[in-house]
Amino acid sequence: MLKAAKEKLKQIQGISRFRIIMYAGIILLCIVLVMGIVGRSTFFDSYTVISVIENNDNISENYQVIGNNFIKYSKNGASYLNKNGEPLWNQAFEMKSPRAAAKGDYIAIGDIGSSIIRVFNQSGQVNEINTVNLLENLEISSRGIIAAILSDDQSNFINLYDVSGTELVSIRASLYETGYPIDIALSDDGKTLAVSYLYIKDGGAMTKIVFYNFGATDQEQADKIIGAFEYDQLFPKIEFINDTNVVAYGESKFVIFSAESTPKAILETPLEAEIQSLFSNSKYIGFVLKNGDNALEASDKTGKYRLQVYTASGKLFLEKDFNFSYQTIIGSEEEIILYNDYQCVMYHYNGKEKFNYTFENSIRHILPLAATNTFVLIDETAIQKIKLK
């Protein structure tokens, strides 16, 4: 009898411990959910300066975030700065029209109209590549593979190079054959290339979006083309937004492609107004559309601009009208950042305002860092690491 009672007590204690663990887990989950909801709705009206260094740069400096650090580059050279704005290395050079492409630990800076591409990582310059023909555009993969649109007097070329500067691929292009390459997108592994070509058909301008695969595949085509799609409008921008999906941005719509072994268009979405700006990251694709030519034509209800945000799969996630006269828009994975000369406005992805502040000094750049609510603020006098409060 006593033994049976002890066994029953153990069963009750076991059930009680299970219930305690279960209830504790439910409470913890509820706390996490509430904190997430609160975090996505919090409004900040000020900030704390974590670090500051003097800024003596001119207005033509450009910045590119790489993790918690960032690259600063101009016609006269490049510097790699830590998250506090302190230089880790400097590289002097002369370029007339520098353009950068960054992915992973690599950044390529090319001189548009010249034949030089410099490749950097977090340790400094890795290589200098001479493309022979003149550079028009460039992309880089996270493995350091570089894709470049080049031109000579008669044709265009799309070349791929490895980090050492070895030419891996060369594709010849011309307006009346393949078409003129408007933009290029390169996969993370550097094996899949997507090209938006402008070409002429029946006297009209068309776009052909072509996919190439330069990895080990079963396809036998000598030109490595694995898919091609034609459209009766221009698509001036194309990009990989994750490992397998490509987005092509047209004059009045955007198209999402699956770029796996056999590429296919998985979604075409029309845009009802003129595109003012666009942004993207691995989670979202965002557009600012014009609601009216000026603020007086737009009522308080509609706003001058319409912000539309889609998920990476193409589902409409947010639609919001606003009147803020911005000059720059950035879409990080956590917030949408808009700013002009002195004022910055940020939105959560649920459409709620996250931050609204007018600074004393003219804003040059605001760069989101990996840490939550932390940014690099670059103005005419200083480079500051700030945290919203």
Secondary structure elements and pairings:
Layout (H helix, E strand, L loop, with lengths): L1 H38 L7 E8 L7 E5 L2 E6 L2 E5 L5 E6 L5 E6 L2 E6 L4 E6 L2 E7 L3 E7 L5 E6 L4 E6 L5 E7 L6 E7 L5 E10 L2 E10 L11 E7 L5 E4 L4 E5 L3 E6 L5 E7 L4 E6 L3 E7 L14 E7 L4 E7 L5 E4 L4 E4 L3 E5 L5 E6 L4 E6 L5 E6 L2 E7 L1
Defining traits:
mainly beta, 389 residues, 32 strands, 4-stranded antiparallel β-sheet, 1 helix, 10% helix
Give an overview of the whole structure.
The structure is a single chain. The strands form eight sheets. A four-stranded antiparallel sheet has the order 1-32-31-30, with no helix packed on it. A four-stranded antiparallel sheet has the order 2-3-4-5, with no helix packed on it. It has a four-stranded antiparallel sheet with strand order 6-7-8-9, with no helix packed on it. The model is unreliable at 28-38 (pLDDT under 50). It is built from one helix and 32 strands. 10% of the residues lie in helices and 52% in strands. It is globular. The longest helix is centred in the N-terminal third of the chain and has 38 residues, at 2-39. With 389 residues, it is mainly beta.
Please list the strands of the largest sheet in the order they lie side by side.
1-32-31-30
Q: Overall pLDDT, averaged? A: 88
What is the approximate shape?
A: globular
Q: What class would the helix/strand composition place it in?
A: mainly beta
Count of helical regions: 1
Fraction of helical residues: under 10%
Task: Please give the alpha-carbon distance between the first and last residues.
Answer: 65 Å
